[in-house]
Amino acid sequence: MQIPSVRPGSVVAGVDGSRDSRRAVVLAAELASRERRPLALVHGADPSTLLRDPAWALMAGVDQERLSEAVREGARGLLAEAVVLAEHVAPDVTCATATVEADARATLLELSRVAHVLVLGSRGRGPLRSPVLGSVSATVARRAHCPVIVSRRPPRDPAADGDPVRGIGQVVVGCDATGGSRAAVEAAFRQAALWRAPLRVVHCFWDVDAALHGHGAVPPRAADDTTDLRLLLAETLAGLQEKYPDVRVTPELRRGLVDVCLPEGLGADALLVVGRSEADHRSWHVSTALAVLERAHTAVLVVPGVAGGPS
């Protein structure tokens, strides 16, 4: 597989022409502008996959070469439209494009070795149009070497046919109050500083009360056994609050499952940050991150436990 030449440290956005992809391009362009990084728009199109489809293989008179060229021409058109959108959103950003005749998942995973961040839509243009997370975004979020932003939207988004939401108005990060979530929390602070947005740092835990009464926020002065959790949370934030003094931070404890508590009540302009363990791609940490992705209806940043790609 021939991988396109992308400048190391670029913000890389996957382009497939879907509404979710359009939202991803807007977010990627804005992020590249704020980070002062180059932007790369990439489309993965493998004509051979289409030609192996029995519906085409059995159709009489199909010119395979012309069909392949039509796929390539369609890819060029999608990228041209994406460039116009990106330049409208962030005219100060250097924008490059690339088409790869290979599976989109393999292409993006390889690019994650040099990208600063990958930005994707939550699902593509396939026949299944549902709120379920697409296979490309799920695979890349699970295995990428660098952070991945998946731009999600509500199933019934009143602005679905209009312009995508611009900017990030709130950042929320899941924190387990241990060193394991350090990378995610620090990434959330950085994003909050970039977007000048308030930050909520949420630690979710499961106990008897959660099992009996369901999930919910724990009041700051609740007379229960959460004192140790609050102290751990405060210790996790201490150095980062000094590093990012302009970020308004609200620590919060919530009873319940992470994938239920974290996405709850977030608007379309929120960025939800979750960590992903690098120890084992099959670990529960990965499953938790993907469960959050499935439930979220906003942009989700998945951060590897050990940051990959250049900084």
Automatic annotation (TrEMBL):
Pfam families membership: Usp
UspA domain ranges (all copies): 11-152, 170-304
Domain of life: Bacteria
PANTHER family in UniProt: STRESS RESPONSE PROTEIN NHAX (PTHR46268), UNIVERSAL STRESS PROTEIN UP12 (PTHR46268:SF6)
The family this protein is said to belong to: Belongs to the universal stress protein A family.
Protein's UniProt name: Universal stress protein
Provenance organism: Nocardioides lentus
